Amino acid sequence: MFKYIIKRILQAVAVLLLVTCITFFLMKLVPGSPFASEKMQSPEVLEALNKKYGLDEPYSVQLKKFIVNAAKGEFGVSLKMQKDRPVIDIIKEMLPTSVKLGLIALLWATLVGVPLGSLAAYHRDEGLDSFLRVLTTIGISAPGFVVATLLLLLFGVKLKVLPTMGLDSWKSYIMPCFSLGFYPMCYIARLSRSSMLDAIGQDYIRTARAKGVSERKVLFKHALKNAFIPVLTYLGPLTAGIITGSMVVESVFSVQGLGRYFINSVLNRDYPIIMATTLFFAFMVIVMNLVVDILYTFIDPRIDLSKGE
Predict the structure, then answer these.
(1) In a 10 Å sphere around its CB, with 0-12 CB exposed, 13-18 middle and 19+ buried, how is residue 57 labelled?
(2) Using CB atoms within 10 A of its CB, is residue 123 exposed (0-12), middle (13-18) or buried (19+)?
(3) Which secondary structure element, helix H or strand E, spans residue 69, and what is its range?
(4) Measuring CA to CA, how many Å separate 117 from each of 152, 186, 216?
(5) How confident is the model at residue 309 (pLDDT cuts 50, 70, 90)?
(6) What is the pLDDT of residue 17?
(7) pLDDT tens digits, residue range 228-261?
(8) With 0-12 CB in 10 A as exposed, 13-18 as middle and 19+ as buried, what is 156?
(9) Which pTM value belongs to this model?
């Protein structure tokens, strides 16, 4: 296990370096600059600003400096949105909101999606299964901004029972968290259903039933344990994505989180924030995938990470 973790850490460093390089050059290919929209800026002032923040240096030098500083936990300062404020302070300020929204959405999506998928598998080809398949298909097909907008119009504007902006009370979390978790819930339900159907058809399930084991114990102790492995695989990158990738929902409900701030940083060409946020997201994905791989061994002892199985 220790050797496997060390191997994954080395791979993670290589992946982060690759993500940094790709993000940097893609960012530089986008036309414009952080100071291009500044009013009444003379060429001399623009030149001085570029020199101040090192944007006049060759790309290779800029990239090298960013990598060296990032390894020290330093990501520079904001160039425009919160000028000269350290990027790490901005992330620390915005991240808790996104994490809170993401974890609540992830929690309800998992707690609802897994039982729904298991029930659909148990009642295969019955009315409940058909209804859940239609529901999950709609949920997977509907974009997040459509769900968020419909909720906003219905419960916020028409019925006026839920707040439409900010996170001032527990009610204000309902619509953003539901919008953020609806697609994952539907996907988890479909994944749970297919995995449960496969598990139910295995020999060990038939053997347990032949021995007189109760149906509830067969489903929730034997079948669900193995059927949860594909769901766990999905939960790894989902956790990272739902925490840092809630920019659409945050924009619709005017929530001051990291996702919305990232979108604004791209629009304003605030390079340090773009680089730091992208790198943070990649780090989250890597960490969650490693956690999922380790959890495999607790759910299924047959999995041996040291052999890559």
Answers:
(1) middle
(2) middle
(3) helix 59-71
(4) 28, 9, 15
(5) very low
(6) 92
(7) 778 888 887 788 777 765 777 888 888 888 887 8
(8) middle
(9) 0.79
